[in-house]
Amino acid sequence: MLMVSAPAVAEWSEQQTAVWSVVQQSWVDDAEETGEWPTSFAADGYSSWGDTDALPNNLAESDAGVRFGDESATTRFYQIKPATIDINGDTAVVNYYATVVSENNEGEREREVSAITETLVRRDGNWLFMASSGWTPDLD
Fold first, then answer.
1. CA angle, corner 126, sides to 123 and 131, nearest 5?
2. How far apart are CA 80 and CA 116, in angstroms?
3. Between β-strands 2-5 and 42-50, what pairing exists: parallel, antiparallel or unpaired?
4. Is the pLDDT of residue 114 over 90?
5. How does strand 73-88 pair with strand 91-104?
């Protein structure tokens, strides 16, 4: 698997760099199917909402979706690129783009581009995901 992540921007603060590092590690763990994402990265009350979901998913539902994805496809390549990281106290909002190429169990590959907004909260010095929302941007 090939993974690419944009380096930290030179103007970023130490806190912004720390937040982006958590986002990057969540992608590593998800792509490597370690079982850590999302449960080990999430704060109590975590929710996610994708453009194919009718309603937001809680942590247990998000985790079930990730496990199903792990069983039905393998990530072959991903690239994440930050757009903004805004921090106010113990809350961070991260906007970024992701490109993922996955391969299903029949060997068919699919490329997906997403725009993602994630909210992280600092608990006991650690940044944890509180909410995630992703959608497919209209690139035409």
1. 70
2. 10
3. unpaired
4. yes
5. antiparallel
Q: What stretch of H or E contains 127? A: strand 126-135
Determine the Cα–Cα distance for residues 115 and 106; give it in Å rounded to an integer: 27
List, as one string, the DSSP characters of 62-76: HHHHHHHHHHHEEEE
Q: Are 85 and 12 contacting, i.e. CB atoms less than 8 angstroms apart?
A: yes
Count of residues making up the chain: 140
pTM to 2 decimal places: 0.88
Fill in the DSSP letter of residue 136: -
C-alpha–C-alpha distance, residues 81 and 27, integer Å: 12
Q: For the segment 28-61, what is each residue's pLDDT rounded down to a tens digit? A: 998 888 888 888 999 999 999 988 888 999 888 8
CATH architecture observed for domain 2-7+14-133: Roll (3.10)
Q: Of 39, 94, 100, 97, nearest to 74 (Cα)?
A: 100
Integer angstrom CA distances of residue 127 from 34, 44, 86, 137: 19, 12, 13, 27
Place of tokens 């990730």: 66
Q: Give the DSSP letter string of 75-108.
A: EEEEEEEEEEEEEETTEEEEEEEEEEEEEETTS-
